[in-house]
């Protein structure tokens, strides 16, 4: 496989078109109210890559009692790496506990920042391991990280809702 | 010490027998390329194909030697000190101003050094701002803006020629208006006649678009501004490096350009301002080297251009820029323009043959700069750029600091190939052939 094929693995190109979890987001206030009625804390984060304009808005629904990431929806525009990353993120993190999701995110970030030195662990990362090739392209690490940074911020936002309600 | 010393290292390569008569050919361009060491390298296993001169151009050896020679032989602060090096540095610095002024058809004192075109535009905007606060006395009154006054820009501006005016409007209470862009990426001149009116105090527009490659009708826009007594600021960043520009003949009030886009170093640019206008303008940056007498409470300022050049100047960069101007002059700006026009048309006609590629801006046969920005259906510009880079081809991707224009043309980002005097037709053809492989690689079928 050429470097370029390592970067743009088939699964990435497929996800960039399939866009799992992507859709029109209802107004946040409505989603928050609806979530509260079903014991869910809903928060979102909008991230933009200023160097190229890639955008992702990711919305997290976190169980009020069991800390489970029950739903992830997003909307965005950008390169195949950023959009595929959002799609794979929703498949990978949905259903995990907040703690598990954070651990996986840390692993993903460490691998991406390793400049190709850390082999992605498929056991941990699943399909997100396909972004291993990105770590050799420092200019593209931000693209792959964009939805994950949005997830991190939205998760924190959802957790703060609990803090306020107590 | 002679004032021509900084340009003594000009390579003989571009000196054709009759530079005014003989158009550049690929053979000439191959010789020109020998003066640019950076072009002779391998990127990702392929010879570098540099098609990003619209963002920043490469430097010929003579420019780098001029800068090195300055540091090796005459480095000193200018306009202060009486020792020999200080005198030599000042002479070389001012000789550079004279040379750059002549290159754009200005008087020497009409050229103010800045860090780049962005700073030059901000200089004008903040001078207006200061005049609006009452600084500069009666002479500066014509630059004073307030509620009811209008600043007019266009929808195709680089952010550098938009945001300083947005901010000036916010500071002064003036209103910012804009001339819209048509579907083909050219200005709507019919609408312009409605936008520019009796309240217009300032009209700022680009000479050539860094995205669409459109060259705007300066005479028509200047005439429109003159009808209402408005001042004209011309962003000449994409034209001064690529075609003969005479700011006096164009009759604009101000013009700006950047050295690094015209074979010069980074960190140097210039503001052209008509002498009588500069004379009435209050300064933007203040401090040393721009004053006559200073009290604890107040100061008197020098005449232009020194009034606008506070602090230690970009001496080596100015001298190196003069060497770049020598290189361009000896090649001949008409020849540079004609060669790039040919490359521009080759780009446009080649892009038209690639399925799914949509050119932004005017099509084949219409005058344009030697650049082309485009959209590849189904493939994001960032991915297009990555694919080309893998083949050693450097292009610009993104919004090229022109978000409103991209929005107007219905895209969020585009890919841009921009040429210069050192690009060959083979490079353009290689770029086009590689671009044709992009959609299939990303699985976009049509």
Tell me what the structure shows:
The complex is a heterodimer of chains A (166) and B (446). Chain A is α+β, with helices and mostly antiparallel strands and 166 residues long. Chain A is 51% helix and 16% strand. A 3-stranded antiparallel sheet of chain A has the order 1-2-3, sandwiched between helices. Chain B has a domain at 84-328: Type I PLP-dependent aspartate aminotransferase-like (Major domain) (Aspartate Aminotransferase, domain 2, 3-Layer(aba) Sandwich). Chain B is globular. In chain B, 53% of the residues are buried. Chain B starts with 25 loop residues before the first helix and ends in a 5-residue tail after the last helix. In chain B, helix 7 links the parallel strand 7 (200-206) and strand 8. By secondary structure, chain B is α/β, with parallel strands linked by helices. Chain B is built from 15 helices and 17 strands. Chain B has helices spanning 26-33, 61-73, 84-103, 117-132, 163-172, 189-195, 218-227, 247-250, 275-280, 315-331, 333-352, 381-390, 403-408, 425-435, 438-441, and strands at 42-43, 46-47, 49-50, 111-114, 150-154, 175-179, 200-206, 231-235, 254-258, 269-273, 291-294, 299-301, 357-360, 371-376, 393-394, 396-398, 414-418. The chains are: A alpha+beta (166), B alpha/beta (446). Chain B: Residues 1-22 are annotated as: Disordered. Chain B: One of its GO terms (biological process) is cysteine metabolic process.
């Amino acid at each position: 496989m050429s470097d370029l094929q390592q970067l743009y693995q088939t699964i990435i190109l497929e996800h960039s078109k399939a866009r799992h979890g992507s859709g029109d987001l209802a107004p946040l206030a409505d989603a928050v109210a609806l979530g509260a009625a079903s014991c869910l804390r809903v928060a979102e984060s909008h991230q933009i890559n200023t160097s190229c304009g890639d955008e992702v808005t990711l919305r997290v629904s976190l169980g009020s009692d069991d800390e489970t990431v029950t739903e992830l929806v997003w909307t965005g525009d950008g390169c195949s790496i950023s959009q595929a990353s959002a799609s794979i993120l929703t498949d990978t993190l949905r259903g995990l506990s907040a703690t598990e999701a954070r651990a996986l995110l840390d692993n993903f970030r460490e691998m991406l920042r390793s400049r190709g030195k850390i082999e992605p662990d498929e056991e941990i990362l699943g399909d997100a391991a396909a972004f291993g090739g990105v770590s050799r392209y420092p200019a593209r690490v931000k693209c792959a990280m964009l939805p994950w940074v949005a997830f991190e911020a939205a998760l924190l936002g959802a957790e703060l809702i609990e803090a306020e309600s107590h | 010490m002679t004032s021509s010393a900084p340009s003594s290292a000009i390579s003989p390569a571009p000196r054709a027998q009759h530079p005014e008569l003989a158009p550049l050919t690929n053979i000439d361009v191959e010789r020109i390329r020998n003066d640019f060491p950076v072009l002779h390298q391998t990127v990702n296993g392929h010879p570098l194909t540099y098609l990003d001169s619209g963002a920043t151009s490469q430097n010929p050896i003579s420019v780098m030697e001029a800068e090195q020679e300055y540091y090796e032989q005459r480095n000193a602060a200018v306009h202060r000190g009486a020792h020999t090096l200080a005198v030599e540095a000042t002479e070389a610095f001012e000789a550079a101003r004279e040379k750059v002024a002549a290159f754009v058809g200005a008087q020497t004192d009409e050229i103010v050094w800045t860090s780049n075109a962005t700073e030059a535009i901000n200089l004008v905007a903040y001078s207006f701002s200061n005049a609006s606060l009452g600084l500069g006395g009666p002479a500066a009154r014509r630059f004073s803006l307030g509620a009811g006054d209008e600043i007019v820009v266009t929808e195709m501006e680089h952010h550098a020629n938009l945001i300083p005016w947005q901010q000036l409007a916010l500071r002064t209470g003036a209103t910012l208006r804009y001339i819209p862009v048509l579907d083909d990426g050219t200005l709507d001149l019919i609408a312009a006649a409605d936008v520019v009116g009796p309240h217009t105090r300032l009209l700022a527009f680009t000479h050539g678009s860094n995205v669409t490659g459109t060259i705007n009708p300066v005479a028509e826009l200047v005439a429109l501004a003159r009808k209402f007594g408005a001042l004209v600021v011309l962003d000449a960043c994409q034209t001064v490096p690529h075609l003969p520009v005479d700011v006096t003949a164009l009759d604009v009030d101000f013009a700006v350009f950047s050295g690094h886009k015209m074979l010069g170093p980074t960190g140097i640019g210039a503001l052209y301002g008509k002498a009588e206008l500069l004379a009435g303008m209050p300064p933007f940056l203040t401090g040393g080297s721009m004053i006559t007498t200073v009290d604890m409470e107040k100061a008197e300022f020098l005449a232009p251009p020194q009034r606008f050049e506070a602090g230690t100047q970009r001496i080596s960069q100015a001298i190196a820029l003069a060497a770049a101007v020598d290189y361009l002059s000896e090649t001949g700006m008409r020849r540079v323009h004609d060669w790039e026009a040919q490359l521009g048309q080759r780009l446009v006609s080649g892009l038209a043959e690639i399925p799914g590629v949509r050119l932004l801006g005017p099509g084949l046969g219409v005058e344009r700069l030697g650049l082309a920005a485009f959209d590849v259906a189904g493939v994001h510009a960032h991915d297009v750029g990555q694919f080309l880079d893998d083949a050693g081809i450097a292009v610009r991707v993104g919004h090229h600091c022109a978000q409103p224009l991209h929005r107007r043309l219905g895209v969020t980002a585009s890919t841009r190939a921009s040429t210069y005097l050192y690009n060959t037709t083979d490079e353009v053809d290689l770029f086009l052939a590689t671009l044709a492989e992009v959609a299939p690689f990303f699985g976009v079928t049509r």
